[in-house]
Design goal:
- By secondary structure, the protein is of the alpha/beta class.
- The protein folds into two domains: about 80 residues, no CATH class; about 110 residues, 2-Layer Sandwich (Nucleotidyltransferase, domain 5), CATH 3.30.420.
- It has nine helices and five strands; from the N terminus they run H-H-H-E-E-E-H-E-H-E-H-H-H-H.
- The chain has a five-stranded mixed β-sheet with strand order 3-2-1-4-5, sandwiched between helices.
- Helix 2 crosses helix 3.
- It is globular, with a radius of gyration of 19 Å.
- The N and C termini lie close together (about 10 Å).
Length: about 240
């Protein structure tokens, strides 16, 4: 990387410090001032507005790197199951809908914010997920009719599965975002919400280890690999 290509060249702090601050704010339900206090405990004296500036500037960049690496790795394997779900989010007092695609491991593949949850929104969301992650053998949804209408137009309605508890994987994937939403006291613009949910999902995926489904030894191995992957982003 040349000096002109270095995104950290205009900042006095090191890339490692910036990376730590961005990770603390996005991965954990902390406020800007909480991150400021934690950074001070590590010997880094910054303002909470500096935290905001770093998150807005470097958060999407780190998330894009994580997403591109994981998409390339996942394309080598066929997704045998994909879960789709939508939840409402308050944006400046108005109801908006957050659509999500989750794989069989619980990793969030795609996030999409829309004003409605009709056929047009479902179709746009499905096309976006298919373009980036490819097709899946099975698509699990709830009983929302927009899914069936959109998949009928795409020609994959035979892959849809609807069940009472089949979509628990997608339902539970909203919990980390809900905790983060409460800490941020909700959002003011759809653009900000779309940018944050895409960044939050990319950050959360490497650190989501499903510790209740694997052995302690395997959990330790994965937990050690996640920080190593994260630190390599600033290299």
């Amino acid at each position: 990387m040349t000096k002109s290509d270095n995104p950290f060249r205009w900042f006095d702090s090191s890339p490692e410090v910036i990376q730590m601050v961005v990770m603390l704010y996005i991965c954990f339900p902390l406020s800007l001032r909480n991150v400021e206090d934690l950074a001070f405990e590590h010997g880094v004296d910054i303002c909470h507005e500096t935290v905001r500036k770093w998150v807005n500037r470097f958060g999407p960049m780190f998330a894009s790197k994580i997403r591109s690496r994981r998409v390339q790795a996942m394309r080598r394997h066929i997704h045998w199951c994909r879960h789709l779900d939508e939840v409402f989010v308050r944006v400046n007092g108005e109801r908006r809908y957050l659509w999500r695609a989750v794989d069989h491991k619980g990793e969030v593949l795609e996030s999409f914010v829309a004003k409605k949850r009709d056929k047009a929104a479902a179709l746009k969301f499905l096309r976006k997920a298919l373009k980036r992650h490819g097709p899946a053998r099975t698509i699990v949804t709830d009983r929302l009719r927009s899914y069936r209408a959109a998949m009928k137009q795409l020609g994959n309605q035979d892959r849809q599965e609807v069940g009472r508890r089949l979509n628990n994987r997608a339902e539970n994937s909203h919990r980390p975002f809900r905790r983060r939403e409460r800490a941020m006291r909700r959002f003011r613009r759809m653009k900000t919400l779309q940018q944050f949910v895409a960044t939050h999902a990319s950050f959360h995926n490497p650190f989501s280890q499903e510790r209740h489904l694997i052995s302690r030894q395997e959990y330790r191995t994965r937990r050690s690999a996640a920080p190593a992957e994260w630190k390599s982003l600033a290299a």
